[in-house]
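Section 5.1 Outputs to date
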Amino acid sequence: MSASSIGSSPNRVGGIGRVSGLQEYVADVRLAGVLEAKLVTLDCARAKIISIDTSEAEQVPGVRLVMTAADLPQPMPRFGPQLEDRPVIAVDETKYHGEPVAIVAADTKDAAEEGARLVHVEYEELPAVFTLAAALDPDAPLVQDPSLRPKDPLASTNVLREHHVDWGDIEAAHADVVVENTYSFPIVTHFAIEPHAFIAAPDDNGIAVWSSIQHPYWLQRILAKLLDLPLSKVRVLAPDPGGAFGGKQHAKYEPLVAFAAIRAGRPVRLVLSLEQTFQAVRRAATEIRVRTGFTIDGKLAFQDIKADYLIGAYCDIADRVVGKGSYPGAGPYNVPAVRIFARSILSHTTPSTAFRGFGNPQVNWAVESNIDEGARVLGIDRLEIRLRNLARKGDPFIPFDTPADGDWEQTLRRAAEMIEWGKPLAPGHGRGIALGIKSGPTTGLSYSTVRLLADGSVAIYAGTSDMGQGARTIFAQIAAEELGAPLDAIRVVMGDTAIVPYDQQTSASRSTVLMGNSVLKACSSIQAQIRTMAARLHGIDESAITVERGVVRLPGRELRLMEVLKPGLGKLGGELIGNGETRKDGDADHPLGGAAAFFELNCTAVEAEVDEGTGDISIVRHVTVSDVGTAINRLQVQMQDEGAAIMGLGHTLMEHFIYDETGRIRNLGAIDYRIPTTMDLPLEMRSETIENADGPGPYGAKGMSEGALLCVAAATAAAVREATGVAIRDLPLTPERVWRALRERGGRANAGTNDDGES
């Protein structure tokens, strides 16, 4: 019997193509007669479109199509995963900087760019709102036409939706200490290596669309509705994205490119620049007000959380981000009384969407920081105050949801041990520790097909997108374990709605659990067929036969799977086909529409050094520990956690959008928008996992890859607080912001005041 594939770290499926440049992304797809497209945009956020003159652009040699709102069906088709509020192209007015008002398609990129420059738009700039305060002003201009929200009592405001979660009685809760503060989280962008790219081509009286999208089947539904086509006539091809992080979950410009291809009668390709990608997707900025009540012995008495998310011009999936992201805001603690009030606020800014962590990092940053402040007021160690309140396995820490599904104390204690909590620190150094929790998928439906071929090799068909999380490798490992095939004899097919079976979506760290279970069931179906085949060949009762890891066990003997498969198939050959399905139905009465399939739980601990002369922060040591149930691929788990941690350092230390007075993003691109580089990495980085095989996925696995990002900001800010005595509640912790806070601290110290904000 071969060694188990589970828990090992085999070479990544598709890894060579990724590092060698051989992998084909959407922009690499070559179609005969394809037209290159460019967008026409305005140099401001909100403007009334008075007229668009395309005549000069249409005279450019090679330009085959110039399309504006006037060339699309009327009324303008709209789409969106939550609300159908986004027009295919701007109609009447633009809502954010970078929203297209026209698209030009030409034989070459140069011709398309020249044509786009020659589209003349007469427009009138209109008043706009770019911040939470401006959007919530009673006199603010409305971002959305109220007619798009019929029967909505909030339609005449810029509040899209409100979300309420509560239990217990906050007003009656006894607290000896109450800590109240306001925290802010900036707008940041996903910065995937591959910018967004789209191709559409007429195809058999329908449409074929290539997209770097995470949810091919969701896109198929949207396009079918917009184009009035049956699903069978809409084919979505989704090559593995070069990174996504949530930014490629939902349709952006695919509908526009599809309409252009139909109108042109030829394939049309649109590849966004990095700067245009900044204008297409981003994370929601958030302001969070937290009141935390403690008893004198450090127990949490209540959490009162109010979070406003600046979601942008259209809903996209942002309101779901607000609802689901704020829902576990009280953290992985037993809190007797909780009130969470979160709002989605519209603004004339880039529409926000899903982003690794799905709204949780914003609230986690505030709540964990407030717990630290409470510990300081009470004189209780910050690790100890968490241990006193942490939910134990089986505790209903959110009363109407899945109970705590892990031994979370192990995670917290291991991180504290790895950061050497309590050990004396050098001057200018500080430590921080924080816990993060995220609700896993609340619903799900994943189908898979596994084919065991006549030579013992395996083909797996799954609708999941492998955007870097390593789903192909995980599914191959499962099939290798169950069917005994070597990994290099397994092929995983993804990314084509005409070939692979349905998968609801690739998000919420669901791939290993939902699609993984589906692949496991498909393999089990094949094992059952092998048992039937062996019983027929050997005249043995099927109940006396077992199949495990490529070995068929009969009474008194063992056979290799191929010793049954080859004679069983006979001279005609053939194959065995297994189908798997994993379904998690929703619950209409649940605040999120369904309880969590699992929780992602992470503890992050940081040691930081602060240069008080410059405000510069150096991460001396970064520790991340995640509760993963079982690490099917140990190295992939480690790399996912470390990648998430570095991404978390980005929004913690440097990343943020800068807007001017007209709503233009002033730091578009890689030069003016900073992300962590090798120069910014922790001097020492360590990641570990807690594995108790207590998850709902194959072999006890839980979903992971988002948890290690959730609490980076809180842990880092706590380390800075200990190193300097300064509490900073606005991200990012740039050197200038830290330096200014240190100068202000000196002034307050001379005046005999403090900055704690407790009451």
